[in-house]
Design brief:
The protein is mainly beta and 325 residues long. It has one domain: Clam (outer membrane lipoprotein receptor (LolB), chain A). The chain is built from four helices and 16 strands. It has a 16-stranded antiparallel β-sheet that branches. The longest helix is centred in the N-terminal third of the chain and has 12 residues. It is globular, with a radius of gyration of 19 Å. The two termini are 30 Å apart.
Length: 325
């Protein structure tokens, strides 16, 4: 398995990641349901219940489906930068479908890279109702003009060469860790960003934040420590700062052998659905504190739509095979 602290080439890492096997987790488990209710007013949830709510929010279970597309030239941009290096960009479209009722499929997630080193690469991930069943991955390889199917990648491998692992993006589930509520407090800090001089920005970088985001500084948060059940995992435990109303996870700090090795910050926007958990990502920021490699993925509001009525056939290998070079 590849170490998350190393950063091989984006294209090679993506293909290798999808070819690696991961391991199972035991007996049948249903996982977080679509209809998970929020905690009753005035009741403090347990740590596990908090993390289940976080999973609900991050997987958009308050919505039937999500489309993160393009609006003119406005698109989701992923910017990565190594220590002392120039920043590079990829742009991506993403479609998530939660509208399944066959008792087998839980969700499908389609990502299509539209520019950068991963241009014309597509990934289709299928998650299953049985939480013990490995996810399935199909990838469109533009160089081969073929779709290849893989077992789910190793949890610690980099998603698209970023500082976000497959663990962070798709694979980690609440039952993989033991959770402890350690504090409830005011968040009290700002979210990080990549500081790129204006002269070094390409067109897509114009949407990046230019200062720390302090909108959530006064929000009340639960502080939850989640310790992985595998003592040899790529992190020992992580600490999450989670909004007590919306369950948005503003910050996650990862620790290995007592040292913080990575941080992920998330800025969230309200979709005004009537459910406070109906949110969207404005950006994810990640930094590897060992190598100083950092990533930011920015989702402009105008490219994010939900409950779109798109046909289920969109989430198929046929869609992958039609990606234009």
């Amino acid at each position: 398995m590849f170490n998350i602290l190393k950063q091989p080439s984006i294209y090679a890492h993506t293909l290798i990641s999808l070819a690696l096997l991961t391991w199972g987790w035991g007996s049948l488990q249903a996982g977080v349901p679509y209809d998970l209710p929020p905690p009753a007013p005035g009741v403090t949830p347990t740590a596990t219940q908090i993390i289940e709510q976080v999973y609900f929010v991050n997987h958009f279970y308050a919505l039937k489906n999500v489309a993160i597309e393009m609006n003119g030239r406005v698109v989701t941009v992923i910017v990565t930068r190594g220590a002392g290096e120039q920043a590079t960009t990829n742009t991506v479209k993403r479609y998530l479908n939660n509208e399944y009722s066959d008792g087998i499929i839980k969700a499908k997630d389609l990502a299509i890279f539209t520019s950068g080193n991963l241009r014309a690469t597509g990934m289709l991930v299928t998650d299953f109702v049985d939480d013990m069943q490995s996810q399935s991955y199909s990838i469109w390889l533009p160089a081969l003009r073929k779709v290849r199917r893989f077992a789910q990648p190793a949890h610690e491998d980099a998603w698209g060469g970023t500082d976000f692992t497959f663990d962070d993006v798709t694979l980690r589930k609440p039952h993989h860790e033991e959770h402890q509520l350690t504090d409830t407090k005011t968040f009290g800090t700002c979210l990080n960003f990549i500081d790129i001089p204006e002269a070094n920005k390409n067109w897509y970088m114009k949407s990046l934040p230019t200062a720390e985001i302090c909108d959530h500084k006064e929000k009340k948060v639960y502080v939850v420590q989640s310790t992985h059940k595998d003592p040899k995992w790529w992190y020992t435990y992580r600490v999450s700062y989670i909004d007590t109303v919306t369950f948005a996870d503003y910050r996650t700090e990862y620790f290995k052998e007592g040292k913080m090795i990575k941080i992920i910050d998330r800025d969230w926007g309200d979709l005004q659905t009537g459910d406070p958990r109906g949110l969207y990502w404005k950006f994810w920021y990640g930094k590897n504190l060992v190598t100083d490699h950092e990533t930011i993925a920015v989702v402009p509001r105008e490219v994010f739509t939900f409950n779109t009525g798109k046909k289920e056939s969109l989430w198929s290998e046929d869609t992958l095979s039609k990606i234009k070079q």
